[in-house]
UniProtKB/TrEMBL annotation:
Spans traversing the lipid bilayer: 159-184
Domain of life where this protein originates: Eukaryota
All residue ranges annotated as the RING-type domain in the record: 32-67
Name used for this protein in its record: RING-type domain-containing protein
Entry annotated with the keyword Magnesium: no
Keywords noted in UniProt: Membrane, Metal-binding, Transmembrane, Transmembrane helix, Zinc, Zinc-finger
């Protein structure tokens, strides 16, 4: 709502904010005898057929050309379409964005093109440029940091993989060792529990036979 109001105020403030291209070459029939500028919203005095800007003639009680008093609204009629169309086709330059266009398109230009695209004051433009530069710098810093993090991650990954590889090798060695030790244990215990008594018995028997 605030924005709308501000926008409309801006549009109103900018009405007719243009200059004519080659104003000297504009036909006299298109010039208002009161303000000496090209006619705006022209009205024609029915008695003398002269045309004036609506806002110019409304201020007067008489016609500046024929001196007749303007008593009624009917004394003035809307100027012919031919003149209105010719006025609409006058070339103008927008004071805000310096765009050259037909006068009839100016309102539309202010509402749709000029305000939104070009009515950024130089200060706002500078601000947005500064912001853009700041954002660009910020982004490139972020990219740098992301790249560094990625590199770090890659290095960490390599270290972790190497560590896991070494760990699994150690695990396999420990496992093999355990199996080996178990086998040795089995062999030795088997030797002592089964073979040793037999061996001792054999020695005893041998000694016994020998002594007898
Ligand atoms: Zn005028
Ligand atoms: Zn008149
Ligand atoms: Zn403009």
């Amino acid at each position: 709502m605030m924005y709308r109001t501000t926008l409309n105020n801006r549009i109103n403030a900018l009405a007719n904010n243009y200059i004519y291209i080659n104003q000297d070459e504009i036909s006299h029939s298109l010039i208002c005898p009161i303000c000496l500028d090209p006619l705006i919203d022209p009205q024609t005095h029915v008695l003398c057929n002269n045309s004036f800007c609506n806002r110019c003639i409304r201020k007067l009680r008489y016609c500046p050309c024929c001196r007749a008093t303007i008593m009624e609204l009917n004394d003035l009629i809307v100027t012919s379409d031919i003149i209105r169309n010719t006025l609409d086709e006058l070339q103008i330059q927008c004071n805000i964005c310096k765009h050259i266009l037909c006068r009839g398109d100016f309102d539309n230009h202010i509402r749709n093109d000029c305000l939104q695209l070009s009515l950024i004051t130089s200060e706002e433009e500078n601000n947005s440029n500064t912001n853009e530069k700041y954002l660009e710098k910020h982004l490139s810093n972020l990219y740098c940091r992301i790249r560094k993090l990625e590199d770090g991650l890659y290095e960490s990954k390599k270290v972790i993989l190497t560590f896991l590889f070494v760990l699994s090798i150690i695990g396999i060695i420990i496992l093999l060792n355990t199996i080996l030790l178990y086998i040795i244990h089995l062999t030795i215990s088997g030797l002592f529990t089964i073979k040793l008594p037999l061996f001792i018995q054999a020695i005893q028997k041998f000694l016994f036979d020998f002594l007898q």
